Amino acid sequence: MIKRQRVLRSFVSMSVLLLAEHAAPAAEASDPPEPTQRQTDADEVLDEIVVEGRRALRKPQAILDWMARLVGQFAVDGNVDLHGRSATDLLDVQGGSTCIGFGPGPAVQCELSIRWPEARGSGGESIPGGVSTLDRAMLTFGFEPNRIGIRHMLVGNDGMADGALGYLLSGDTLVARAKCGSVAGNCERVVRVTAEPDRKTVRMEISMEIDLRKAVTITFAMHRVPDSPSLVYPGAR
Amino acid sequence: MRRRSSSLIAMLASLGILAAGSAHGQVRTQPVWKSGGEVQVPADPASMLAAKLAELDSWLRALEGHFSLSVERHEIAGLPAMPGMAPEGVVDCSSIGAGPGVHCLLSIGPPHQRHRWESSVMLFGVDIDGPGIHLFRLNSESTAEAGVSPLRNNAVIFHVSCPVIQRYPRSLMEVLSCRRETRVHVRPDSKSVEIRQYTNEQVLMCGGRCRVVMLATHLEWALERVHPERPTGR
Predict the structure, then answer these.
(1) For a surface tag, which of A37, A138, A228, B54 has the fewest beta carbons within 10 Å of its beta carbon?
(2) Which residue of B lies nearest to A145 if distances are taken between CA atoms?
(3) Which residues does chain B have within 8 Å of residue A33's beta carbon, measured at their own beta carbons?
(4) What's the predicted TM-score (pTM) here?
(5) What is the ipTM of this complex?
């Protein structure tokens, strides 16, 4: 009986954790322009949900400190998972990234040059993630003071833009979830960026679900190039 | 008989290639906008989308280049924001890879004092769902705002909820909310770009007794292309 209660309790706490991780950014997916009273209430409700060890960080200085960890030059490695849509399922990723700071925060702009071998579907058709759109790409992060979160946008070498408002969960990981801006139809995109306080490595995961099925997951680690300079442009004083 | 049928197949194939070429050419070369602003809309949705994307592509590519910036107008509540001093600046816009996405670095400040200029970023990309233009802006305070707009008459208009920034002690003036309309217009000759920004802040002012007022800021930038040739992609 005690064992069953324990299992039930752990199931409930797991569900709350999962719900928290998914619900907080999902609330921002449509990104409404003005926070209404109803939204503020919803945020408070979400705070109640997220309280189980996954509370979104709502301290502006901590968010700015987190963004500062992204500034620098990095070597990139990782993989692309095409989730069975191609004969080659896992593709090796290589490249580099230069992230520049802007203003007192600083906000961050990363220029990515990330490549992987081209892959096609079993019938020779093009598939999402089959060709790198991140060689080159621009990824920017800025502080969103109205919602106390981080807004980002990624523009790839195909010109398509994907952006969302995300929150820092667990202090080191930004999670943003939104409808895809680069793929029409029923497509959802989740971005996770983990930047540890030691500033050595930044881990990113960009995944896309099309028609509720995982289509592509790009996972890469950005390793700071030793002794590389960190450039920050001056902003408002 | 066999010869006739193979000729027929060859003829149909040629027609198919011609038709495909013509459709391709329609998207790539024929203008979507006529001089009077009348829209030339292809019949089927796929062609319409392709034509719209081609139009967005062409608008974005017209943004690429090196521009000088002058402030045409900067007023707060109808009064000059910085009397006696018109800031100036430079704007560098380059394409992202081979695609039409554009990254612009803006440096603006008091004339002849480059060390005091502030930097900000504007990032433009295509939003496939609209379809339209997606703008992301990093302000000099490290804050971000983003919006999506359809392209009409060579211009995009973004309505965003802008960052609430307290510039004065709260006891004097507290900004409650901020709405901003940003209009980016590329002149048809692509030699200049006009950026107009209307910001409406709802402000609580307490001098004796408190009252809520709307503070309107009107900012106009004129960007003149310095180098006629477009830079290579980043």
Answers:
(1) A37
(2) B163
(3) 159-161, 179
(4) 0.78
(5) 0.77
